[in-house]
Each structure stands twice: as C-alpha cells, then as structure tokens.
Amino acid sequence: MLNVLVLPDAAAVAVRAAAIVAGHARAAVGERGQFGFAVSGGRTPALMLARLAHEDMPWSSSVLFQVDERIAPFGDPDRNLTQLRAHLPAKARVNPMPVEDADLEAAAARYGAALPERFDVVHLGLGADGHTASLVPDDPVLDVTDRSVALTAPYMGRRRMTLTYPVNRARHVLWVATGEDKAHALARLVAGDGSIPAGRVAPTRALVLADAAAAGTLSR
Predict the structure, then answer these.
(1) First CA to last CA distance, the chain
(2) How far apart (Å, rounded) are the C-alpha atoms in residues 78 and 59?
(3) Where are the beta strands (DSSP E) in the chain?
(4) Domains plus CATH for the chain?
(5) What average pLDDT does the chain have?
(6) What whole-number percentage of the chain has pLDDT above 90?
(7) Alpha-carbon dihedral sign for residues 46, 213, 24, 69
C-alpha cells in the first residue's frame, strides 16, 4: 500500500514536498556524501522547486537529473529544463537530458550511463490518464526494461526522453498529485492498478503528497 498524505492545496503540497526533499538530501549527504535527485516537470513541481531555495539544502553535494524531457530546442517553454532553470538557484547542479542531440538514441544511452546506481529520491507526477514521467498509455516505452532511459512515440505533439521502469531502484519515490482532474488516476494508483503506467512503479519506499481536490475520491 502507498503511504498517502493529504494536504489542503497545491501550495501546501509544494511546501511539504520541498521540506521532504531537503530532509532526504541532508541525510544522503551525511551517509554517502552526495544526493542524487530525479525531478519531474509540471505546475506543482515548479512550486516545490521554488520552495527548495528556502530550505536547508546541501546544493554543493546535490546533483539533479531529469525524469523526462520533451524533444524541443533549448529555452523552449515546453522544456522541463526551462522550468528547472527558472525556479532553482544558480548554484543548483542540473544534469539535463540531451534532447537537442542529432542522435537521440545514442543520447538516451549516454544519459542512462551517467545516472547514479540508485537515486536517493525520484519525484514523480501523475497524469489524468495515469501516466507518470513520460511513461504513457500504450507506448512501446512501457515495455523497455533493459535501459534506464528511452524515447517515446509522439505524445501531445512531442516525442519525449524518459526514465523507464528501472526507476524502481530509487531509495525513495515522492509522488505529487494536485487538482481534481487527477482524482481518478490517483485512486487507481493507490489501489495498485497495474493497467495504468503509474501503477507499475513499485510502491515500496514511496510517499504520495496530494491536495484535497486530487484525494477527493480516496475518502469516500
């Protein structure tokens, strides 16, 4: 069973998420000397990233990786990296997905080789259709198990580079779900519904932070 914490709204979710990430970061640096954090894009994650600037965060010993990224030019507003750069302090070290490379398959393999053996924290969002990262319904990428990073078919107008299900080897998984449109998908995730992409992420060592709107059906 997933551990679910319900908070009043998206702002409260962002504040709590930032505090949790910073806490894991301090613990990881204390135990292993470095913190490896994979972060997703989205509206609420942007709030979380902005809050991290106010936390006791060991930036010099932290490396941030991307959970997924759209194939788009540098600086494109669709890019998750654009959001990361806008909300993180300048001292944050970000290892961006190389989606501008001409050979995207080789770029995905190179990014996969650069990932830590285990992430300390992987932050995941949840789509209304049950997708997480860019693991979307009916995409062949769902069946990739021999690579940590792969490419998707076009989804909502863009191909994506994404972490695959080896994300299950993270020490901690932090789910963030906000908004009424996520309520049905969240209920399926919590129920362990493996027919949605998010439901195939291992529930162990995972915490879901949800606002009241997303968690509405869980309490009925």
Answers:
(1) 18
(2) 26
(3) 3-7, 35-39, 62-66, 68-70, 94-95, 121-124, 149-151, 160-163, 172-177, 206-211
(4) 3-219 (3.40.50.1360)
(5) 93
(6) 83
(7) negative
